[in-house]
Amino acid sequence: MDGEPFQLISGAIHYFRIVPEYWEDRLLKLKACGFNCVEIYIPWNLHEPREGEFNFSGIANVEKFIKIADRLGLYLIARPSPYICSEWEFGGLPSWLLADRNMRVRSFYLPYLKKVDNYYDVLLPKLKPLLQTSGGPIIAMQIENEYGSYGNDKKYLNYIKDAMIQRGMDVLLFTSDGPTDMMLMGGTVDDVLATVNFGSRPKESFKKLQEHFPNTPNIVMEYWNGWFDHWGEAHHTRDPQEAADTFEKMLKNGDSVNFYMFHGGTNFGFYNGANYDEKYEPTITSYDYDCPISETGDITPKFHLVRNAIAKHFDIGELVLPKPIPKRKYGEVAMTNSLRLFDVLEQISEPVKSTHPETMEKVGQDYGFILYRTFLKGPLGEAPLTIQEVRDRALVFVNTEFKGVIDRWDQKSVMINVPKEGIQLDILVENMGRINYGPYMYDPKGITEGVRFERQFIFDWTIYKLPLDNLEKLEFTTEVENVKDQPSFYRGNFQVDEIGDTFVELPSWTKGVVFVNGFNLGRYWEIGPQKTLYVPGPLLKEGNNEIVVFELHGIKEAKINLIDTHHLG
């Protein structure tokens, strides 16, 4: 840096997982811990939600976030690679790419690269004034993310590198990959700094980096000091002392470190991703990551141990933290109104007629739910109904009566009966998050091939798109009604005198989505590990507040609790 050796002590904070009102709070805590840099991903799907339509406002105002970091005296590493992984929906790639069944991502495929170019034509000029070479805080940029874990297309990597350079990105460019021969050989490119990602054994990992790139700086671009969670598994934690000790070994050696994550935040809305190892594994709403700053911005024991490690090697002064954000307990909220989904379909969705049960992407939908309806003439008798292939979880209804679940795990069919008078068949499919890592990233949602009754494919469908991105059309005029196995919207109101962070607890509910004052907090599911949803204070207002819950299966009691404690496992 300016001709002098510089040891990077950086931490990942994702602006898109934090309400903008808290950006400065989280960055101040990063600096207070002794860090000199913040690292961000930039998710393409957030900034170009529809092809050719760009969003850089609110939680997507990346320029504002970078300027706050600059004002606080932090350097910044930007990772605007088209693909980010990050346990984020489709790894940051926009879902509309999949409307083209021939699409090939992350490779030298011109239809894909043209769309990347269109995105970079808008994004990169916004970053140009914020580069260090322009007087800004951005000291480095990534061209692709862990590409060696996916492919070896050097022509593609060079195209992305050149796309950045041609648009004036004249700061240090880098790649980041796992510390193996295959990953480093596949993911690196000439004249671009290679870095490695790992959670332990730094000596061995850096040795592998030096084997491929002798005398290169030792930089871990992702030091995994915690981990993320999938639905249905235990909450991941890592011993704070062990994580801090591993970090200090690198500090002593003069290695540069970027904590992934320093503060994780929340997968608000439908933006969680998913993994696929031996099975499909969707990520939970919380992105706490068990890192130095919790999902809710709290200082953790890991924070203090990491700061102590830094203080042994650098003068970082006394610990000065921003004022704590209060947590409030607003108590029990009675849900006073409800609406069955089947009663309001026409209010919140315009039907699309189709011969085939098309995917979400094919009908122009990104996230949420999608309902397929048809009429089967009888008599056909009883036989299994099979979806070929569902992405990801479907509820099957005959004449609006629930018959069972078909999912991409174990439940592949449901028995139904088609009498002489025929039946109305409804299939409600939930997109639980597109795969964000590995070889199965081509993950269109909804019904991807077809529906069979016994061996016969069913045609002639009416499709209702249910992104649930605007619930204002719902007219809650009916008293609350608890109908088992009927997907329904429930509404309640609560009063706020003093605004603070709070948490939605749903002990009597099964699976669904929660909205507070129209903001989609994310998914809940009784299988855990997450038991509460985080409600940042800025989403609330003094006086009356509204909470709407879309429940898929039914409830025991029509109430939720707003408590002052987060439960993750």
UniProtKB/TrEMBL annotation:
Domain Beta-galactosidase galactose-binding, chain residue ranges per copy: 487-545
Stated family: Belongs to the glycosyl hydrolase 35 family.
Swiss-Prot/TrEMBL keywords: Glycosidase, Hydrolase
Transmembrane annotation, as ranges: none
Positions of the Beta-galactosidase 1-like first all-beta domain: 357-466
All copies of domain Glycoside hydrolase 35 catalytic, residue ranges: 1-311
Organism whose genome encodes this protein: Lederbergia ruris
Protein's name according to its UniProt entry: Beta-galactosidase
Pfam family, one: BetaGal_ABD_1
Gene, per the UniProt record: lacZ2_2
Top-level taxon of the source organism: Bacteria
InterPro entries in the record: B-gal_1-like (IPR026283), BetaGal1-like_ABD1 (IPR048912), BetaGal_gal-bd (IPR048913), Galactose-bd-like_sf (IPR008979), GH (IPR017853), Gly_Hdrlase_35_cat (IPR031330), Glyco_hydro_35_CS (IPR019801), Glycoside_Hdrlase_35 (IPR001944)
